[in-house]
Specification:
This protein is α/β, with parallel strands linked by helices and 358 residues long. The protein contains 14 helices and twelve strands. The protein folds into two domains: 175 residues, 3-Layer(aba) Sandwich (Rossmann fold), CATH 3.40.50; 162 residues, Glycogen Phosphorylase B (Rossmann fold). The strands form two sheets. Strands 2-1-3-4-5-6 form a six-stranded parallel beta sheet, with helices on both faces. A six-stranded parallel beta sheet has the order 9-8-7-10-11-12, with helices on both faces. About 1% of the residues have low confidence.
Length: 358
């Protein structure tokens, strides 16, 4: 039996801070075990990627305790923020880095002579030293190769999704759902600004996600919703997991994903697993998650990121056009049948690990 050591943030099992990255890490580890791998988990404390000296020392101790040539998968939030720990171990250990969101996205390009703490220079150095890099979308692979000129093998292992019952659509299509930590990256402020232009229509919006990641932004979103006079129709309900999250999807007509940055967007495929169409930003890997059916039809509407006016127009079209809703629901049902499961993700990752271990 092959053994792989997996180093992840200690928030991986925290129900108060659910994230796509944490879900991915948990699910692929479980799926690898089912495929015959012995998975040794090493959750490491720290406010990753902005961890302090104690957190860096914790990772260093974990790696120092592993035998030579051990196969190690590291979540990119950890690995790419501590090149001073990873680079000295790169020759002794067989390192594979799993990148959910590149730390360099949105960061300025490094200047000549910049310090190693620069996000781009740190991340580029770590990924160049790894045996392999695993990403969740072709967009991320392209971004990393362009940003860092990587010659390291970069493999796309898209997230899987669990089969789920079909949602029961309402006649009006007015039950809107947004899932994700309440942060500027996820764009709930853009959604509120768009909804402020739709006060004449029948809708309700539920925002599911942690408000603890960026509390000040969460408060601004709530204040903005109240200032529009539509606050009673916009609910910010905090994180949901398990059955309560499934219930939120099951009672939704449309998932709204107004992200400013998105490397994939697992919430998109989780909605599509229930044949819930999506209105989302045309950014990063989100169009890949949305996908298209065999005839080229998309199960949703894509708009420019950060553009509340265009998002409002797309939502108005959804809410006022029964034929559009029926068409998108039909496409979502067809797309639902094509979604890969976690076994497919684990198969891809298992191949990467076998090659890295050779």
């Amino acid at each position: 039996m092959s053994t792989v050591h997996v180093v992840v943030p200690d928030s991986v099992d925290d129900p108060a801070r659910p994230s796509g990255g944490n879900t991915y890490d948990r699910r692929v580890c479980s799926a690898l075990v089912r495929r015959g791998w012995s998975v040794m988990g090493w959750p490491v404390a720290g406010a990753w990627p902005a961890a302090g000296a104690a957190a860096r020392d914790g990772v260093a101790a974990v790696l120092a305790g592993l035998p030579d040539r051990a196969l190690v998968v590291l979540d990119g939030l950890v690995a790419c923020s501590i090149p001073e720990v990873l680079l000295p171990e790169a020759r002794r250990l067989r390192l594979v880095v799993l990148v959910h969101l590149p730390l360099g996205v949105g960061a300025p390009e490094p200047r000549a002579g910049s310090a190693s703490r620069d996000p781009r220079s740190a991340e580029g150095a770590v990924l160049s030293a790894a045996r392999a890099v695993v990403v969740t979308s072709a967009w991320t692979r392209g971004w990393l190769r362009h940003a860092y000129g990587l010659t390291t093998d970069v493999v796309v292992a898209p997230p899987g999704v669990d089969p789920a019952p079909l949602s029961v659509a309402s006649d009006s299509g007015g039950r809107l759902l947004c899932v994700g930590a309440v942060t500027p990256t996820k764009g709930q402020d853009v959604l509120v600004d768009a909804l402020a232009r739709l006060g004449d229509l029948d809708w309700s919006a539920t925002c599911v996600g942690s408000t603890a990641v960026d509390p000040s932004f969460s408060r601004r979103v709530r204040r903005r919703a109240d200032a529009t006079g539509l606050g009673a129709r916009v609910s910010v309900v905090g994180p949901r997991t398990g059955d309560s999250l499934a219930e939120a999807y099951a009672s939704a007509d449309l998932l709204v994903a107004p992200s400013r940055t998105e490397t994939y967007g697992m919430v998109v495929t989780e909605a599509l697993a229930r044949a819930v169409p999506v209105a989302g930003s045309e950014v990063g890997g989100l169009p890949e998650a949305l996908g298209r059916t065999g005839d080229g039809s998309a199960p949703g509407l894509l708009v420019p990121p950060g553009d509340a006016g265009t998002l409002a127009a797309a939502l108005r079209g959804w809410l006022t056009d029964p034929e559009l809703r029926a068409m998108l629901r039909g496409v979502a049902r067809r797309r639902r049948a094509e979604l890969p499961g976690w076994s497919s993700t684990a198969a891809t990752l298992g191949t990467v690990l076998s090659e890295a271990a050779a």
